[in-house]
Amino acid sequence: MNVLPTENSSREKREIREEEERLRNKIRADHEKALEEAKEKLKKSREEIRAEIQTEKNKVAQDMKTKEKKPLPPVSIPKLIGISGGDPEDTDIRKKREKIKEMMKYAWDNYRLYGWGHNELRPIAKKGHSTNIFGSSQMGATIVDALDTLYIMGLHDEFRDGQKWIEDNLDFSVNSEVSVFEVNIRFIGGLLAAYYLSEEEIFKIKAVQLAEKLLPAFNTPTGIPWAMVNLKSGVGRNWGWASAGSSILAEFGTLHMEFVHLSYLTGDPVYYKKVMHIRKLLQKMDRPNGLYPNYLNPRTGRWGQYHTSVGGLGDSFYEYLLKAWLMSDKTDHEARRMYDDAIEAIEKHLIKKSRGGLTFIGEWKNGHLEKKMGHLACFAGGMFALGADGSRDKAGHYLELGAEIARTCHESYDRTALKLGPESFKFDGAVEAVAVRQAEKYYILRPEVIETYWYLWRFTHDPRYRQWGWEATLAIEKYCRVSGGFSGVKDVYSSTPAHDDVQQSFFLAETLKYLYLLFSGDDLLPLDHWVFNTEAHPLPVLHLANTTLSGNPAVR
Ligand code: DMJ
What we know:
By secondary structure, the protein is mainly alpha-helical. Helices cover 50% and strands 10% of the residues. It is built from 17 helices and 19 strands. The chain has helices at 5-43, 46-68, 91-114, 141-152, 156-169, 180-198, 201-214, 249-252, 256-266, 270-284, 315-327, 333-349, 380-388, 395-414, 448-460, 463-480, 505-518, and strands at residues 120-122, 127-129, 177-179, 228-230, 236-237, 247-248, 295-296, 307-308, 351-353, 359-361, 363-365, 368-370, 372-374, 424-428, 431-434, 481-482, 485-486, 530-532, 538-540. The strands form eight sheets. The protein has a three-stranded antiparallel beta sheet with strand order 3-4-5. The protein is globular. It starts with a helix and ends in a 16-residue tail after the last strand. Residues 1-6 and 552-556 have low confidence and may be disordered. Bound molecules: 1-deoxymannojirimycin. 1-deoxymannojirimycin binds at residues 316, 376, 446-447, 506, 510, 534-535. 1-deoxymannojirimycin binds next to helix 17. Residues 53-91 are annotated as: Disordered. Its cofactor is Ca(2+). InterPro entries: 6hp_glycosidase-like_sf, Glyco_hydro_47, Glycosyl_Hydrolase_47, Seven-hairpin_glycosidases. It holds the Pfam family Glyco_hydro_47.
């Protein structure tokens, strides 16, 4: 039936009027209801109102937990070899290993008592401690960092206690600005390792939740991430001190291992794509003398200051090139090539022998070699040894180079009053492997020298590495153990050192783990099945020969 246009429009108008009236009535009714409820509320006591709010809060928290615990898509976990054991046959070695376990328990128990939930511990003041890398909220960094060490040592009650804290308290929806690098290596690395060792889903879920919060850091004109990101707003920025607003090589270059595992476990290629983009960008850039400068501007994609080091600011970038290859079951040839090229340039320009015959790694600053080596650079002894097999026909050479670096770093310990190494040491005329400036004489429970001893021990079984590791253990026990845990010392050349009153989370994650492994059999976490991230969190080798992480569902 045809309807005339005038009839049509007047009917529409009537319908609109009726609809408006219905809406007005609904708003009026809602208002009246809200007023009635408010009046009712006002009749209630403060306690009643508080209780109601608490009930609402609990409901929201419960809903969140149910949501959080939703399992991720199933993925086959690589076959895990050697996650326990390693019991030494020799009684003396067994006793030493027990002692190290006791030190771990002491560090953990004191943190449990005085710093629980805080990021780190002040073992003398006996209270929590934190720094800007963890942002402004209490994220239990020590718990997350220590979990896999507890597991490996068989401290299962402590492990479960940590797990419970994580289940109930670890929350990344906080208005807090964190270091992308630090939370990646300590939190994502720690959670992934705990997941692989224990197969408890919660660790995987938390790792993925945190990774999602880090992704906005990659929203830069080049895709090179900011150093810091606010977990709530996703706003990123760089450290104020970094050359010309640059991001740091060792920070944006130390994400690969964890991000590849995240893509593997979730089936989501986003993480893999982010780190591969960084790699591709670096490959395209010119490198002065074949060296990678430590600073790169994420807005322009240009290098900042020409400063290259194998210690702080550069270190773990090289480590992750090698480990990307190892972790891919030696199939990521591109990573291996980049590693080989990089260390050839490093050897040519940065590695020298002192007059006294000690091999050291200096730092390249604007065309000049600074003959100073940081404690952080001592990890490279282990890296050279680990990369020896698979190098361009120079396996013997790199194993030897690793051993020389281990010897130099041992000398830096041996030439102090405490037998603990300084933060950095010089090679200048008569000065060899000794810190000169007061500000470089501290030891903050760092792991790198012990890490190198352990790798060299695994590859050579030369008893000197266990001997050197034991010397360091005794020195830590004597000078760093205090009434509420373990503390760093301010001057390793003073026989009565002052303490810095910080028990670093990496002491539990790395230093004690490497010591424990040094006095364990090689069947505990064998190196052809496990690759340790730069915070000593073991991740399994992924046999990805027939799969791809860049979006192919075959990865599941
Ligand atoms: C750790 O957090 C990691 O080893 C990192 O790669 C460098 N520094 C500390 C320990 O010294």
